[in-house]
Amino acid sequence: MDDQLRNEEQNGTSRRSFLKQTSLMTALALAPETVLKAAESGLDEKIAAAIETMPLNVVINGVKQSVRIEPRVTLLDLLRERLQLTGTKKGCDHGQCGACTVHIDGERVNACLTLALTTEGREVTTIEGLAHGDELHPMQEAFLEHDGFQCGYCTPGQIMSAICCIREGHAGTPDEVREYMSGNICRCGAYSNIVDAIMDVKQGGKKI
Amino acid sequence: MKQFSYVRVTSSDAAIAAVSKDKSATFLAGGTNLVDLMKSGVTGPERLVDINRLPLTKIEATKTGLHIGALAKNTTVAEHPLVIKHFPLLSLALKAGASPQLRNMATVGGNMMQRTRCHYFYDTAMPCNKRNPGSGCGAIGGFNRMHAIFGASDKCIAVHPSDMCVALTALDAVVTVRGPKGERTIPFGDFHRLPGDTPEVDNTLQRGELITAVDIPFNEVAGHAHYLKVRDRASYAFALVSVGAALSLKDNNISDVRLAMGGVAHKPWRLKEAEAFLKGKKATVDNFQEAARIVMGPAKSQGSNEFKLTLAPNTIVEALKLAAANGNI
Amino acid sequence: MGTDKKSEPLNRVDGRAKVTGKAKYFAEFEVPGLTYAVMVTSTITRGTIATIDTKNAERAPGVLAVYTHLNMPAIPGWADQPNSNAKLPSGGEKYRMLGSNKILFNGQPIALVVANTLERAQYAASLVTASYNKTEHQTDLLKNTQKAAMPGRFGDYTRGEQKEAYKTAPVTIAADYTIPVEVHNPMELAGILAIWEGEDQLKVYAKTQGVKATQRTLAGAFKIPEKNVQVHSEFVGGGFGMGLRTWPQEVAVAAAARQLKKPVKLVMTRQQMFSLVGHRPYTVQHISMGADKDGQLQGIYHEATAETASYDDFTEGTVAMTRFMYACPNVTTKYRIVPLDRGVPIWMRGPGEATGAFALESAIDEMAYKVNMDPLDFRVKNFAETDPEKNKPFSSNNLKEAYQLGSEKIGWNKRDRTPGSMKDGEWLVGYGMSTGVFGAHRGESTCRAQLNADGTLILQSATSDIGPGTSTAMVQIAHEVTGLSINKIRFELGDASLPPSGSQGGSATVSSVGSAVFDTCTALKALLAEAGLAFEEGTVKPVTGKTATMQQVLATQNKTFFEVTKSSKGGAEQDKYSMYSFSIHFAEVRVHPHTGVVRVKRVVTVADSGRIVSPKTAASQMIGGVTGGIGMALTEEAVIDHRFGRFVNNNLGDYHVPVSADVPHIETIFIDKPDPYSNPMGSKGMGEIALIGFSAAVANAVYHATGKRIRELPITPDKILSA
Ligand SMILES: Cc1cc2nc3c(=O)[nH]c(=O)nc-3n(C[C@H](O)[C@H](O)[C@H](O)COP(=O)(O)OP(=O)(O)OC[C@H]3O[C@@H](n4cnc5c(N)ncnc54)[C@H](O)[C@@H]3O)c2cc1C
Ligand code: SF4
Ligand code: FES
Ligand code: FES
């Protein structure tokens, strides 16, 4: 038997056992037997996709997104792997680095620990949503000016976090900024320039 | 992560019903601990009941104290004017925890329920009685620098990682929970438990029970509060040892005092003997040291956490000194 | 260039892409039909896989393949090479990912799962189970010192008396120093995206510090011509050394992609990065030192013993600095490696020198106190005017000026030198200093210049930018040579099909690639001159007496652009002089005597690294190095539980990289004087010296604050309390 055939055959049985072991059934009006029959007759891919995924409506950077996703998909993976919004970074996937910082309804959160479905009806802003055309957000401008980065990988998270740091009223002194920016790790070590950039924006007094 | 189903509920009853009838279901609040544990393979619920939209986010004064909804975010609580005014210790403890982003996600209920950060618990390739009862405790005889010096058992030496809970236990908070059998209250000090022979059980919450609120009675110790957290880096790290101290001082006489420690036991560790000793005494370094000495009696090192036997009493003294000196925050 | 003229601080030319999220790192390219690879790793440290069960994984939804040692497609270039390391101290077997059932270290991949979505691949990977035949493992260096062997590359060194002169000197000190495993942990997760565009045409998006090196490795592994391997790596989210190798799992992913005929992407987990992309090796050192009563060094003995893998021979210049840094008549250094059942180390920022400098510069401080001298005066007294190891003059050495500038800035002479004498409230105050040094290397590099009819200049070289700002520095060099406006110059890198350059490592990029840019632009000027053209006022104009514009000249020559390609490398001067970059670090710390907490309050760091080509990005290199140094000094340690041979803090929550609150304002000072011999710009490297030595400045400051000498990094509260 060639490889491809064997794969398909295995997937057939697997689908069936997968459906059997999952308790998804209870969540749905579908009788398990019907589904298992469908699995046998090869209709399972579609059914599986239907029962394994759920609809999500969320506004991202002002654009309404309606997608179907598995409940286990995180906001971070939704952005990076499905919506091609790769500006939001993955540095740890466990809430330990801040690279994935985005705003949900204006507040900074870690997208890697946010299940995408929990954002139903919310507004998400990512680094891609900051600039107006060619005009950079003042915080982006300040990072550029103060060289608040090196490799640039933590930068989107830093900038999203920095904006909230000011909005929340935690940019009173450089030490306060240091504390309230400590949820964003920069391995290149650009911190002291980042603090300067934030103090600069804060003192500039522009609405951010 | 394995597949699971997801339901969003809007009433506590629906939430409780959903979880109590399904052994493999669990509540999802901020997700900062649960999603992490699911990704690490430590836990694998088949059904998540999203409680984020329950109307349990209120923070309001009652006749006797402050009522905080279980779904209030850690940031909201920490920044709330009533919290800052009446319970500065709680605000300080919350701000010492995690990061601003995580505090925006984490809820009061979730914070209480967060599980230990013991490395062996997180690594499914390691033995751990808490994760896998009967498999042994990897931390005993291993890398246990972060582990307990009080109340540990030969089954588990993990610590409860929360900062918020240190303040809540010191402040005599009361937890309200609702389950299939109705509502009950649990004094904060009885909420978490020691590991004993069943380290897999972190607390006294029953299956299907939902934490709905925490109530803190008004007190006299808001004037002098300090939360001192000693950790391996300046921020965004769990405590080696933390101490929450709050005092009521009149002419340097201690009329009331609250003292609790984090990072030292399987539960937030209230220091009642120290409180009893200090009450009615002068706020002096000598008295602080004696208070610390009294509570360190039963402390026991596990090996790499030997330093906590020195660090813990020192931190108690420093926290009391800072609380006494601080006036208010 | 090569003059005393200072360069202008310039914003990064690729900064806009980075602050808007448009910069694309390897994992971010949209590829039709993309599939996802996830690795399953071993839970034992040494032994063999008895059984491996992949059935459930194979049957899970969306799974395309599960590779193990039983069905891994052969990698032709690996199969060719003998599977033994007889030449290595270990004499062990080579590590071939999924090549056999042998387990050589904990966390070694035992399966590679490929599925059509990330979540499905992750889930399927969790379904793979294995049973093992365990054999005894050795991961503890201290218990295996009997295996210590002298590696071929770093032999023993002695200058002066063979007998241990330091022992007979009037004043002596001797102590041991320990550096734990440190992990690079660039913020970007490691991995690769591999696409086969035909049977022998491979394209990868990689996280690498050397696109040419990756190209060579992959071409060798698949036995296809180098030109058939396209390597793209324009943006790299940090490397710090881990990107200096193309790791076995990256090759394995390419092999999977070839067999599946689908693009495959692997993004490793942070946990996996602790075992599979190298680390700074655990190293124990002994230093003995002897001096006269008046502080003249008599002898230094420095011995370092570091871990390596059982299957690979990793070495670095740990004891190099001791050989030449100070004018000392008798010096002996020894360097040994111990094979252990662990993943192989790789150079980490400031490689061995950072490890060695911690020991040497701590010992220098201790000796200064012992002879009752200021540590700065002690260093000046023992200053080496010429390189005592190579017996050559330094190409440039402005250390004395650096000592002076730095000490003035931090207020060194205003402090009370007595340990434990200075306080700020409850906190003890301490000042410490140290020196860092790293070879000023220059490799061969090629650059192509294309001057277009519209007056834009495109420069190309197959180099990388892992963060230092390579493009920015290159544009700046081209601007200074040609006078063309900055916004008309573009530098292209991170693509193996561009003219060849070395990997980005050892602080050599500006020196090597910059020289190629310099030479290419100089040649371009000559070419233009022949055509009656010259760079003037930021653009290209006819020279006096000529009228034909560039466009006209190009038209008559039937061209659309001028083109020059030049290779460049150092000449005889490289042998005549001893070339080093130097740094001086000053740190002011606070130590809490009762909680043991140490905070770095102020830092002044001075670099003597020749002429500064790009002041803004160079300053960032310095603050970045210092930040890494703070981590090395105070927070970073990867711990192995030797009972299991497994890391117990392999994540960013438990392995503490410094956060913003750990890092104070950092003042950087550049001597900014051209080195007459290093290269046409007069520059010397800077990425490594920024970190090298910094940990000793902190340890010395802790001593000044407390009177406690901590010789084991990191200096965490427990060490202060128990010292
Ligand atoms: C990197 C990192 C660093 C951290 N540092 C700190 C720190 O320094 N100090 C500190 O204190 N904490 C720290 N935390 C932990 C953090 O505070 C907790 O993860 C958080 O408080 C959990 O709240 P949550 O709402 O996100 O809970 P979830 O993750 O949603 O839930 C956790 C558990 O509680 C249960 N649960 C949630 N709400 C209820 C309810 N109302 N009733 C019954 N059960 C419920 C859930 O079923 C789940 O089992 C850190 C976390 C991370 C990831
Ligand atoms: S201390 Fe507790 S949580 Fe940690 S390994 Fe032992 S049993 Fe598990
Ligand atoms: S990727 Fe989310 S915090 Fe690191
Ligand atoms: S810029 Fe590289 S990690 Fe911050």
From TrEMBL, chain A:
InterPro entries attached to this UniProt entry: 2Fe-2S-bd (IPR002888), 2Fe-2S-bd_dom_sf (IPR036884), 2Fe-2S_ferredoxin-like_sf (IPR036010), 2Fe-2S_ferredoxin-type (IPR001041), 2Fe2S_fd_BS (IPR006058), Aldehyde_Oxdr_Iron-Sulfur (IPR052914), Beta-grasp_dom_sf (IPR012675), TAT_signal (IPR006311)
Keywords carried by this UniProt record: 2Fe-2S, Iron, Iron-sulfur, Metal-binding, Oxidoreductase
Gene3D superfamilies from the UniProt entry: 3.10.20.30, [2Fe-2S]-binding domain
Segments forming a coiled coil: none
Name used for this protein in its record: (2Fe-2S)-binding protein
Superkingdom assignment: Bacteria
Residues covered by the 2Fe-2S ferredoxin-type domain: 54-130
Gene Ontology terms for molecular function: 2 iron, 2 sulfur cluster binding; metal ion binding; oxidoreductase activity, acting on the aldehyde or oxo group of donors
PANTHER family: OXIDOREDUCTASE WITH IRON-SULFUR SUBUNIT, OXIDOREDUCTASE, IRON-SULPHUR BINDING SUBUNIT-RELATED-RELATED
Automatic annotation (TrEMBL), chain B:
Molecular function terms, GO-annotated: FAD binding; oxidoreductase activity
Domain FAD-binding PCMH-type residues, every copy: 1-221
Pfam families hit by this protein: CO_deh_flav_C, FAD_binding_5
Domain of life from the UniProt record: Bacteria
Organism: Chitinophaga pinensis
Alphabetic keyword roster: FAD, Flavoprotein
Name under which the protein is recorded: Xanthine dehydrogenase family protein subunit M
InterPro entries named among the record's database cross-references: CO_DH_flav_C, CO_DH_flav_C_dom_sf, Diverse_Substr_Oxidored, FAD-bd_PCMH, FAD-bd_PCMH-like_sf, FAD-bd_PCMH_sub1, FAD-bd_PCMH_sub2, Mopterin_DH_FAD-bd
SMART domains in UniProt: CO_deh_flav_C (SM01092)
Keyword 4Fe-4S annotated: no
Automatic annotation (TrEMBL), chain C:
An annotated Gene Ontology molecular function: iron ion binding
Gene3D superfamilies, A to Z: Aldehyde oxidase/xanthine dehydrogenase, a/b hammerhead, Aldehyde oxidase/xanthine dehydrogenase, molybdopterin binding domain
Positions of the Aldehyde oxidase/xanthine dehydrogenase a/b hammerhead domain: 20-136
Regions crossing the membrane: none
Pfam family of the protein (one): MoCoBD_1
Name of the protein this chain belongs to: Xanthine dehydrogenase family protein molybdopterin-binding subunit
Organism, scientific name: Chitinophaga pinensis
